[in-house]
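Q&A FORM
Asked by: J.P.
Topic: structure of MATE family efflux transporter

PROVIDED:
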Amino acid sequence: MTAETPIRPAMPAATPAPTAPAMNPRTRLLLQGPPLRTLLRLAWPNTLVMLAQASVGLIETWWVGHLGTDALAGMALVFPGFMMMQMLSGGAMGGGIASAIARALGANRREDADALVLHALVINGALGLLFSALVIGFGPALYRALGGEGASLEAALAYSDVVFAGAVLVWLYNAFASVLRGTGNMMLPSLAVVLGVVLLVPLSPVLIFGFGPVPALGVAGAGWAVVLTSLLTTALLGWAVVTGRSIARFRIARLRAALFLDILKVGAVASLSTFQTTLTVMLTTAVVGAAGGPDAIAGYGTGNRLEYLLIPLVFGLGAPLVALVGTNIGAGQNRRALRIALTGGALAFLLTEAIGLAAAIWPAAWLGLFGADPAMIETGSAYLRVVGPAYGFFGLGLSLYFASQGAGRLLWPLLAGALRLAIAVLGGWAALVLTGSLAWVFAALALALVAYGTLIVSVLASGAWFRHAGGSA
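REPLIED BY: S.T.
REPLY: Here is the structure written out as tokens.
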């Protein structure tokens, strides 16, 4: 009798390991594309749109300049606060949003990237409403403290109350734009903002001076033009994200503290840097006003408008730097991330230094666009001749600040901003007390910019991002 061959039980089929979702080609470009070529490819549409966005303020200032020096001085009082809102919503919190999404996509965490969209809208929506309440409530006291009085104060309040009533729209469209930029998509935000500027060109003079059945609203009309174009931009960018025309898509998801923290650990710290920049301008405006009154404020504010123009211009490079640096650090490519950052810093220095030197040589070409008042031209020219040649260091430091957002490490840009604030305000006030000359006040502002850019590039080039992080620097 032969022994039966034992029958072995069938082994269950092995369950295949879950595979990570395929990486999007745009994300792969951020990780593998040639650094300089990739940066320029992403930067040119973004730089174009930032110039278009900056032209909003320039167009309105040009039209308001036709209302007289008091109206121009009133806008100079409001402009730092409006730019602070743009920088907070687009550059600070926007940088936190773009950085968080870029790092999630670099690590191939697609579900987290989608969930971050909702968290970004919650953060920026709430901050927009808070910003409106604060500025409308405390605006009169703020503008008086900055030197506003009489007709210039009335003009400031007429513009401010309207433009900040619609502040939440600016915060929301910057949230949508930052989501798209964090994925490496610079074109959609560019198109939306350009369309808004195209609308602003005819809308602003119509509302300021009136046309047919539309009454003349004066300075307040300039504010309404900004609110209406912001509404259009918000609608277009919101449509793009909500309908899935983005790698990171809007989905209803459970709110998670970890994702709020992922945005805020960059955005909140970056906001301190934004406050530093705006506080520097506000306090130096007060110093100039103490020395020369409303005419000097109008001249300094108009000249300083060019410095503010550099911020969106550098942001054209900065937004791609956030996406490139964040994605590469998310993927563990630290050496490549640093090389990209320093390349962007060099480009920003060359661009802004060229603008600063041109302004120092031909200051009246810029100032004459906004008025012909002799006192305004004199003060603005003195500012541009002294501070313009230091603009390159401002561009250098600002571009590396954006790169640091992508890295999620903002300590050194924050310290450099504090140094700039101290030199500009304390040094400027001391110069005014000791010499009584605005020229020495402007010299302190120039020195502050040089110190700002030099400190940031020195410490980042030494590997400060990676001293307490894993991976090779």
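FOLLOW-UP: The mean pLDDT is 83.
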